[in-house]
Amino acid sequence: MSILLEEKQRAFAELREIKANLAARGWFPATSGNLSVRVGGFEPEQFTFAITSSGKDKSVQTPEDFLLVNEKGVATEATSLKPSAETLIHSEIYRLTGAGAIFHVHTIFNNLVSELYWERKSIPVDGVELIKAFNIWDEEAQIEIPILPNYAEIPRIAALVEDAIVPRIPGIVLRKHGIYAWGANAFEAKRHLEAFEFLFEYVYRSHLLNK
């Protein structure tokens, strides 16, 4: 699929803005985390997305921060940049959901709750108002946020994504690693990410209070 220059520029600008916003919150410790925005048309087996390049300090802005890759995670333009090591996970989420943006961050609370509820394989949230951020409007709604193992080999994780996705929950957590949150566009993905992080902190602090 051909990508217009302005589509690429718009995606990079969106990523630059969200990167600065999340870096200011300390959500990218030690160059961790990755962000992507889908660009152009979409078919499950053919699409393009802009993603953060590997090993960059996300608290600073440089011309080498982003690149375009295809559905296989391969760069679509000549470049010496390497996409994030976790690009294949983004590819699978796009393929399965048709999302417009995916944001992945590492925080203390998403790591703690992923371990706390590892045996359950999901993080339970009961009746918290911010569940509505996922367009779930049931009174006293209860959700379960999926947790996957954090294998060293990314293809092993990517192979588990399809069975882990819950249609109404726009996120997956990797154990002692971080959250992947997605949405129809960058605005929605950011809203979902913020809601997940609030809920993770709520669940963990609630667990401490009830011990």
From TrEMBL:
UniProt keyword annotation of Amino-acid biosynthesis present: yes
Keyword Membrane: no
Catalyses which reaction(s): 5-(methylsulfanyl)-D-ribulose 1-phosphate = 5-methylsulfanyl-2,3-dioxopentyl phosphate + H2O
Keywords, alphabetical: Amino-acid biosynthesis, Lyase, Metal-binding, Methionine biosynthesis, Zinc
UniProt remark on cofactor binding: Binds 1 zinc ion per subunit.
The protein's enzyme class: lyase
Any one Pfam family match given in the protein's UniProt record, by short name: Aldolase_II
Chain positions recorded as Zn(2+) binding sites: H104, H106
InterPro entries: Aldolase_II/adducin_N, Aldolase_II/adducin_N_sf, MethylthioRu-1-P_deHdtase_MtnB
Associated pathway: Amino-acid biosynthesis; L-methionine biosynthesis via salvage pathway; L-methionine from S-methyl-5-thio-alpha-D-ribose 1-phosphate: step 2/6
EC numbers, comma separated: 4.2.1.109
Family according to the record: Belongs to the aldolase class II family. MtnB subfamily.
Protein name: Methylthioribulose-1-phosphate dehydratase
